[in-house]
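Module 6 notes. Inverse folding takes a fixed backbone as the condition and produces residue identities as the prediction. Think of it as a translation problem where the source language is geometry and the target language is the twenty amino acids. Below is one complete input and output pair. Work through it position by position during the lab.
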């Protein structure tokens, strides 16, 4: 079974993570132990761990395409839009390419 997890951040790849992200990591580990294939879609990495047990892929955000207006776009998305067309397009393309059995969305 192929499971794709989608999360804003992911332990080991991002510096700032919370309890929800650690729970996502726990679910990924249990799925892999039971023979599942796990892919994680998340935002741009802060770092890459030495041991990479999962197929973790970075998804671009609108702010990454327009870095000079990143702060403005982040605030605009947070308070008005609640939508990122760049991330939506990238995630949709990844899901069509991967064709997972299950998609688990965190956050």
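Target side of the pair, the amino acids:
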């Amino acid at each position: 079974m192929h499971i794709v997890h989608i999360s804003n951040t992911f332990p080991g790849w991002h510096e700032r993570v919370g309890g929800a992200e650690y729970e996502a990591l726990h679910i990924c580990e249990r799925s892999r132990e039971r023979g599942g294939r796990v892919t994680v879609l998340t935002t741009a990495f802060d770092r890459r761990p030495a041991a990479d047990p999962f197929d973790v892929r970075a998804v671009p955000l609108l702010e990454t395409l327009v870095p000079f207006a990143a702060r403005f776009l982040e605030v605009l998305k947070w308070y008005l839009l609640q939508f990122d067309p760049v991330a939506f397009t990238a995630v949709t393309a990844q899901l069509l390419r991967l064709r997972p059995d299950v998609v688990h969305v965190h956050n």
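Reference fact for the lab report: The radius of gyration is 14 Å.
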